[in-house]
């Protein structure tokens, strides 16, 4: 592959991509949790939560692709294994099938964690003058902040 010359130095590209790897791992882990809860939710709010979780995991599936492609655009390999995601993610897997109310709480915390990860990536993207990553990460923050709000509103 030819040399990358997009106006962002190699060290900055690697640092930004490193942060994006964490964002990708968090997003993928949250995607898996959301899909798992979609399949396994039960109780009086079944239909509402089943449909909400489907909307959320569908959105996350597109997001992980966008994040991985940004990492590749910066010239760095994107992680793509469960092992790599487990090492990089700040979101821990849930082994059991929790009650629906706990699912909502777990996903709320997951979305809030992704927002925190976004904030870290945003700093390095701004320092590296990488407006494309800034735009991507800012968009992701808005989605996760809104989703966390909607999940919190469901549990009140």
TrEMBL record:
Q: Which UniProt keywords apply?
A: DNA-binding
Domain Ferritin/DPS: from-to ranges: 20-153
Tell me, what is one Gene Ontology molecular-function annotation carried by this entry? oxidoreductase activity, acting on metal ions
The record's similarity note reads: Belongs to the Dps family.
Which protein are we looking at? Starvation-inducible DNA-binding protein
Taxonomic classification, please? Bacteria, Pseudomonadati, Pseudomonadota, Gammaproteobacteria, Cellvibrionales
């Amino acid at each position: 592959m030819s040399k990358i010359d997009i106006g962002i130095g190699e060290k900055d590209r690697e640092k930004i991509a490193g942060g994006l790897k964490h964002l990708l791992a968090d997003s993928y882990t949250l995607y898996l949790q959301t899909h798992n809860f979609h399949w396994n939710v039960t109780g009086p709010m079944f239909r509402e939560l089943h449909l909400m979780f489907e909307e959320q995991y569908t959105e996350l599936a597109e997001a992980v692709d966008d994040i991985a492609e940004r990492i590749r655009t910066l010239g760095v390999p994107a992680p793509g294994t469960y092992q790599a995601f487990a090492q990089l993610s700040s979101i821990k897997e849930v082994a059991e099938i929790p009650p629906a109310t706990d699912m909502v709480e777990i996903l709320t915390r997951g979305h809030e964690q992704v927002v925190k990860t976004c904030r870290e990536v945003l700093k390095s993207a701004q320092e590296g003058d990488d407006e494309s990553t800034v735009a991507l990460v800012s968009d992701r923050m808005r989605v996760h902040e809104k989703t966390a709000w909607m999940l919190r509103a469901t549990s009140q």
